[in-house]
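User: Hey, my collaborator sent me this sequence without any context and asked if I could get a structure. I don't really work with proteins. Can you help?
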Amino acid sequence: QVQLVESGGGSVQAGDSLRLSCAASGGSFSNNAMGWFRQIPGKKREFVAVIRWSVSGAYYTDSVKGRFAISRDITKNTVYLEMNSLKPEDTAVYFCVAQSGTGSGPWCCAESLYEYWGQGTQVTVSS
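Assistant: No problem. I've predicted the 3D structure and written it out in structure-token form, which is a compact way to encode the shape of the chain:
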């Protein structure tokens, strides 16, 4: 059974930075893409960023472009989300996601594309 374990959340001030990490372990699967969603209490989960695993390619939601950067370490089966210039509206639970496969289909950005989800890590940004 594949597990995704997030780390790196916390409480920061507006303008600060945080780096989230997500390590995939267990089972054996071919990663096609990994990424991040977030959810504010009472609101729907929203897509944040995703990166293709074996070839180049990444997408970001408009509100984080220029501030967040997604990257991956294939040798560690880990995806990272570098979050800079954080704003109070970035406050949410951040979920790591992974899509298995060989890259022949869509890989962004609907929730239904990702079979594996982490438990989430809280990010709180105060003004």
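In plain terms: The mean pLDDT is 93. You can pass these tokens on to your collaborator as they are.
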